[in-house]
Amino acid sequence: MSLDPASLTQALIQKPSVTPKDAGCLDLITQHLEDMGFTCHRLPFGDVDNLYARLGTQEPNFCFAGHTDVVPIGDQSHWTLPPFGGEIKDGFVYGRGAVDMKGAIACFISAVSEILKDGAPKGSISFILTSDEEGPAKDGTARIIEWLKARDEKISACLVGEPTNPKELGQMIKVGRRGSLNGTVIVRGRSGHVAYPHFAHNPIPPLLDYLQSLLQKPLDQGAKDFDPSNLEITSVDTGNLANNVIPASASANFNVRYNPAYTEGSLKTYLDSVLEGAKAKHAADFDWSVSYQVSGEAFLTHNPALRDLVAGAVQKVTGMQPEFSTSGGTSDARFLKDICPVVEFGLINAEAHQVDEKVSVQDLKTLTQIYTEILRGVWPSP
């Protein structure tokens, strides 16, 4: 019997799984998958609950991947309906995670229940699900992949159910992502009274000079299949609570979303050169430090068979020719691309992380049809 994706989306939303808590989502999912014959492995790492499930033992092993955790709701008084109520109103299911990405997980499972009406697949279907995507992403998909490698478990291809469509279901398939680097720079000077600046060394002007140098010219003009790299300053702080004190230090954070024109190493080299230029322009009265954290390198999926399989299913169900895109933020596809070809296709990303997040019941039905067609494309009927 086929499962109803809207009802399953409601049930998942009603579990308040704010990252990294799963709040029972994987218990519910495990129950449905075991009922369909899957072998389920619960994989807790640290505070994170994870699941790898597989039906079948043969190849190809087609995998659906996603996350049960959601971002915080913010001020609940701003929500029209309870954020974890999963209520249906005017044809929409409301609640945190409706599109990012409990709705897609419900469609994964519903599509599998539909395909199994035709009999067991000749290969395998698997699931990689984590409660650590919206947070640090240290004990989630990356750790599951380590576990898979240790067991010599192979994934043939993977579809991540992140919301990918700007406005209408069928518009966009993500076939890669830009890399992401977070940087923190600290300039230490000497504090003092604002009336006697000659006794102090104000760290703010050299810091601002460095930041302005970062923004002075574009990082690049883009790369094939990728938008230009961009750098955004996300915070500037001194921790200073007095307006008559020159602070002892000043810091700033920034993020770079970079295309394949850079690697982690070449980007750090460029940023360090800008830093050295700023340091050279100022007296030796300041101490500078910088640190970087890369959450993922830029990548592009070069697998025409997988790309065409997903695009063909989208076009068959919706009548739309989807765009192949590398836009947007990072996702767990950055880990999965190391073990298999991976693409992303899900719901409407404009609703992600919004107050009154919602998904239309019709979109859930349509997405289930698309995922079903993808599975039928993996194992075509004789």
Q: What count of domains describes the coordinates? A: 2
Helix and strand composition category: alpha+beta
**What fold name stands as the CATH topology of the largest domain?**
Aminopeptidase
Strand content: 15-25%
- Overall CATH architecture of the largest domain: 3-Layer(aba) Sandwich
CATH class of the largest domain: Alpha Beta
Helix-residue proportion? 25-40%
Shape: elongated
Helix count equals 9
Number of DSSP strand runs: 19
Query: Could you tell me the mean pLDDT?
Result: 95
CATH superfamily of the largest domain: Zn peptidases
Order of helices and strands: HHEEEEEHEHEEEEEHEEEHEEHEHEEH
Main sheet overview: 6 strands, mixed
- Uncertain segments are none
Strand order of the largest sheet: 1-2-6-3-7-18
Distance linking N and C termini: 23 Å
Radius of gyration, whole Å: 24 Å
Overview of this protein structure:
By secondary structure, the chain is of the alpha+beta class. It has a 6-stranded mixed beta sheet, covered by helices on one side. The protein has a 4-stranded antiparallel beta sheet with strand order 12-14-10-15, with helices on one face. The chain has helices at residues 5-13, 25-35, 98-115, 141-150, 204-215, 264-280, 304-318, 333-336, 361-378, and strands at 39-42, 50-55, 61-67, 88-89, 92-94, 124-130, 157-160, 172-174, 176-177, 179-188, 192-193, 230-237, 245-246, 249-258, 287-296, 299-300, 323-325, 342-344, 358-360. It is 30% helix and 24% strand. It has 2 domains: 5-177 and 298-378, Zn peptidases (Aminopeptidase), CATH 3.40.630; 179-296, 2-Layer Sandwich (Alpha-Beta Plaits).
